Amino acid sequence: MRSLHLPISRSAGVFSAIGIIIITALMVTAYNAWHQSWTIKPEYTPVVTLSTFNQTVGYKLGYDLFMPNSFTGWTPNPKNKLHFNSLTNTYEIYGVNVAKTQVDDWGARFKITSIDWQNEFGVAVAEATNEQSKFGIPLEGAIVHLTHYVDSRDIYFELPKAVAAKALNVKVKITSQDFHPTALLYVTLVE
Question: Where are the transmembrane segments (predicted)?
Answer without folding.
Answer: 12-34
